[in-house]
Design goal:
mainly alpha, two-stranded antiparallel sheet, single chain
Amino acid sequence: GDSALLNASYYVGPKEYVRLDGLGEHQDLVMQFGFFGVFSKVLLVILHAIHSVVPNYGLTIILITVLVKLLLWPLTAASTRSARKMSQLQAPIQVLKERYKDNPQKIQQETMKLFKEYKVNPAMGCLPIVVQIPIFIGLFWMLKSASELRFAHFLWIQDLSMPDTVAMLWGFPFNPLPLVMGVSMFVQMRLAPTATTDAFQKKMFQMMPFIFLVISYNFPSGLVLYWTVQNLLTILQQWISNRKPLPPLKLADTAPAGKKSGNKKKNKK
């Protein structure tokens, strides 16, 4: 019968991107970084660079978080300022809703006029979060796939690539770091300016720390560490921002209609 010769190469070793990438033939795809792989690769390069100077991976993740925060600081500052202005405008917007309650189009037009006059962009509040999503997902897959963080210690954490379980309570893992993250997010939400008067939206806003606590409870502790430090730095930035007073708004044209008519009657007398 016919015979065939098949050549195959095998790699047996740690799942490290630098090693796999050096083998060529797309062996680095084994890392499975996903759609945001470019962010995972960049973060991994930064991780190696910092770790060559700082020998602890926990401290390395903290320094990466500080670096990301510094890069996004101007954007977050602009977003916070816009949100504070939005909070200032909630009362006059409510007046407009009452004045033109039978004309939704007019409410929209007058609201947009206010936004334009006071240079408020409602989308600015979401922009820092949107920008961070690829970074966060890239970090998630980097921590999940790279072998560098396996069994890497930091404080009570025994393995930064796994949840920081310190005990089993009635068969349920007790992970302290997500709880710290949840508390830090709660404080961050308390400091953040309220940009809406809608009761449902406020309720959802208040529930966010609990929702993210549940979501992140079994995440790799390295990722939760990044998230926690990010929250703490955001708290610092919001505290600094809140200490800077905004100029008072001149909103005479949005006074309630009843008060305006009352003033006119007094002037006639």
